[in-house]
Protein 1
Amino acid sequence: MEFQLKQSVPATEKTGVIIVAVSAGDFSPSALAVDAASGGQLAKALKHAGFEGKPGQTQSLFNLHGIAADQVLVVGTGPLKDLDIRGLQRAAADAVKALARGRKKAVSFLTELEIKGFSLNDRIASIVRASLEAAYRFDEFKSKKGDGHGLHHLTLAVAEKAGISAGKKAMAWGEALGSGINSARDLGNQPPNICHPSYIADQSRALGHAHQKHLSVKVLGEAEMKKLGMGAFLAVSQGSAQEGKLVIIEYTGGKKTEAPVVLVGKGVSFDTGGISIKPAAAMDEMKYDMCGAASVFGVMKALAESGLAINVVGVLACAENMPSGNATRPGDIVTSMSGQTIEILNTDAEGRLVLCDALTYISRYKPAVVIDVATLTGACIVALGKVVSGLFSPSDELADALLDAGQRSGDRAWRMPVWNDYQEMLESPFADIANIGSAPNGGAITAACFLARFTKDYTWAHLDIAGVAWISGAQKNATGRPVPLLMQYLKSRVS
Ligand code: BES
Ligand code: MN
Ligand code: ZN
């Protein structure tokens, strides 16, 4: 989809479709203008159609008198005075979905909707990003491909000419963000017989080739990881016929001397549970267990496309968790790269094993901040549902910055504790640490506490995205979260 900015007013806009917002009680300025120019036809038609202006509702009206465009797409927003950034994203997405068939071009007046604390440019970026997300399709494996999204050109209307040049940067940011989000979704949605660790490594190399100026990509195989002493990582990948890979993508947009932000993603390309095998129901969804890595990939792509002035290292810890004659057994003890020994009591708690060695490896970058992203625990879904990511950090400053980035991007997180009280649940009679907590509760926290033992050298946060990385059921799809949160955070560090 292509985007453009233009100074325009709704009544005389000649492009085929104009998009305006209506809420339960009141009309947006553009809806009012359309109503006035059409002699009250808009209000009458909406009343006739029983259109309430709730979020999720859309209504098309054709050939209104006095209106140059032949279609007016009315999008419900709920009360305009309460509209927040997620409401605007929702409205932008609903508009794009309503235009999936037919029209190729539209002009959106959603830009005019004011939101406390957000500028016109913020709104432009949000509408662009949400439109790209809404137009996303994954039909690579359908014999009959959809003919792509109907809408090819979306023009965002601005009231004043001065808004155009400033808005272009915001538009480009929204495009880079949407592209990063959708590339994370593409990786996540790939079937697990295709998307194994080498595939993720190849995609990363290809990304590096496409952006040679800003990105450099390095891939470690199992032999190299063995040399580094990554016994925890290898305990997971050893059960699989697919070789484990540690993919390192370096983005240099900032000064050479500036310490990087390091992002580490869990990339378990399929999680059977290993010998502690999972039940069959919905096991297919464990192809999404690499969505942490996919989101880091998406961030690296969005960074390269936006050119943000920052240094970021993205690390994808990719392995497949399989039962086999070579697989790790419950009771096995391995030595991590940090030197700490781990008793593996449950082979299904594999994410923390691949992550702990990756988290030790990256201390060589002398990071300013480290954030790991992982579909780490079912317990996080029990605690928080599928609305927000679980955020864990011993640093109040980093936690607050990430919570704020979540609010501003509409990709929210909620903080959970990583207090030492929970550490004793990880004690093992035989090794330095067990890979699961001794209690049947607090599983998201004990998982974070496990990681905390490997992240003492730097400022660190952990995002458990088990509930938010994909949607289950009939609409099954990767979401690309938390690319928006992470990009917002990185942007906040620059300004
Ligand atoms: N990948 C899973 C976590 C998960 C489960 C994410 C369901 C999303 C949906 C992880 O590797 C896992 O299996 N965790 C175990 C940990 C337990 C064995 C301590 C879990 O959550 O059950
Ligand atoms: Mn598991
Ligand atoms: Zn897993």
Protein 2
Amino acid sequence: MNRLSILVVLTLCLAALHPAVRAASAGTASPAALRQTLSLDEGWRFHLGDIARDSFAGGQGVNLYGPDITYHGAKAGSAWGAAARGYDDRGWQRVDLPHDWVVEQPFDEKALKQQGYRPRGIAWYRRTFTLPASDRGKNIELQFDGVATHCTVYFNGTEVHHNFSGYASFQIDVTPMVRYGDGAINTVAVRVDAEDTEGWWYEGGGIYRHTWLVKRSPIHIATDGVYANPVKDVRGGWVIPAEVTLANTGVGVASAAVDVGVFDAAGRRVAGGRSAPVRIAPEGAAVVKVAVPVTAPRLWSVDAPTLYTVRTTALRDGTPVDAADTRVGFRTIRFDAHKGFLLNDQPLKLKGTSNHQDHAGVGVAVPDALWDFRLRKLKEMGSNAYRTAHNPPAKELLDAADRLGMLVMDETRHFNASPEYLEQLRWLVRRDRNHPSVILWSLFNEEGLEVNEEGMEIARVMNAVVKQLDTTRPTTGAQNKGQLGPDGKANPKNAAQSLDVVGINYQADDYDRIRAAYPDKPIVSTEDTSQVMTRGEYTTDWAKVVASYDDVYPGWAATSTARGAWEAIARQPTFAGGFSWTGFAYRGEPTPYGWPSASSHFGALDLCGFPKTEFYVRQALWVKDRPVLTLVPHWNWAGKEGQPIKVLAATNADTVALYLNGKLVGDKKVDPFKMVEWQVPWAPGRLEAVAQKDGRNVARFAVETTGEPVALRLTPDRNALSGDGRDAVPVTVEAIDAQGRPVPTANLAVALEVSGPGAIIGVGNGDPNSHEPEKASKVTMYNGLAQVILQGRRAGSGSLVLRAASGGLKPFETTIDVRAVPALPSVPVVAE
Ligand code: GAL
């Protein structure tokens, strides 16, 4: 888009539930009928390591135009080495995207600690395809949703793009460089440089998000070119002030208009409007505005996330030529200095978690379905908000947040007001500004400059750039210092001065002072907690594991147990809420230890999404509409007869009575934040808690001493999978005793075997110290649990059977029904 001149045309057309709307809808068609959005994920060739520039036959010995200069060569179309057309990549590995090569590497103590002790390096990807002669004249765009970390893209031997953020999507209009017709091969080559890093956590390496090839009419709706975010007007009515960017890559000036239709979940067109025509020069663009009133829509909320579809159709001389569907939700949001956050005018405390983007077994190449899985887990914990720390998320995460009702603080990677980085910020806002889930733009995390005038100015510029594209959501920054001056009053020169919402990372001891210093600004805890615990461990071993009692935290995060952190936030009624560090554990930044820990011990859930004690604690703190009661730890302590075991009841009840083998241990009043703990001399048997609220029994929970494991058990998160090569399901592996009880201390090696239309795409066990391969057909359980991620094969259908066996235990077999689904339209793989 940036090479196109933008002509902004304002055509306000008001039309709604009115006969004209029905007439207008006559001239529209579905996006599938007008544009082709083809997956380019299948069938890439992959080479780990760089390729010498002079390795291209014919390249050796040439001087000025030759490979001794760059891959790029000196002339369009004549790149060298692996960047060239016709390069022989037949010996390379075939991979499908999303792909993270770093997660496939062995752990290595000499590799970067912050990145999780795995080698990163440089790699190449290549993909070839043909386009029929009938595509001539169309707009052809390549889309990369995310490549970690830096990359250069070559198309048909011409260098076409450099990308310097592993989190920003990019699109390349390759229209003038395409070759058409059956015999003409088109070649995409991508050199990925993951030697560099952008963060202090695991970032993976490779083309780890989806890729697409989009064929559109030369007059088309630009990528991310629809802004259709519903707003409530001053009179209380709803309107979608749609702004649509139309582009023209055709040869002549064109006249085009847009039709905007709003459809409910049942597919009924409930409102619409159409613009007057605008003229668009070749290689030009125009922004067309159409305000569409919508009468009495159903609202979107975290409990009832109702979505509508806005269908935007580009019309050339009255004929539909392109269309795009945008999912939207009708909701109001407000951050208020006195009332905190309000959704649909109702106060709602943000019970948030911060999260990086990797998952066990798959690294950062997270299948779309796992975003659903992860958000469902967080909702189960009582969370209603998600911070995309510290970078733009996959768009599929936001789609899932829209569908499931999870509010999102959307964070950019770079605190930088230079043109290139502002362009990344613009891209983020343009891509994400229609999502009802997105409520807050975060412009930075813990920047050195946040404390001074430079930081204030960078934030001012970034804030202004955001406002040009979206005035409906406030900005904030995750700021861990500098809001206060030495006098304890507002520091006149710091980043918070430039932002709508003051973000506070940690600094719980200063909450009152910061509140007083910014009386007119809303405040949110952008980050807190940093609680460390290792799932299923209850004794700290200062070399590698942390006991799971919610009482150990790094020095910089004082007061940061999950309980202490939430208590501090809850005691600030004007705060919008908070985002704990973290929802899920993540690779890299292996706090509080280094090697052998390769992932952090942070997280209410481990790398697989298995709950830790913090999960139950947050559930007790956050869930209000039902009783919550969980006991920690398990009750398998053979060898500790008579010794005191610390027991924590995570509950939202008033009192808890604890019984060991039917005998009352104690009946305690529950502190709503600290909850309740005992020291219980251990004896085998059953430890049971009975919780009361308002004098009535409301919940019971028991842990029992189990027998030895005798059998395995597999529990898939879902029993059906789409046979599309994309859908994925995590399966939990447990060992059970003779009575069918899961054995929480089992650490058994499990052999896996799969048959049918699918495959294992990764395994994990949530152990931060594990150095086992994650692409394997075996896994070792860690404290009673392991996870296997299964994926249905493209065009697959039938029964996918996973078998698990371990020594003399009874094996287990689970069957997932792989359902045939229409194939995702994709670009066929053609060999050169
Ligand atoms: C914060 C930082 C996070 C993470 C965390 C660990 O200061 O924003 O990225 O490093 O500390 O406690």
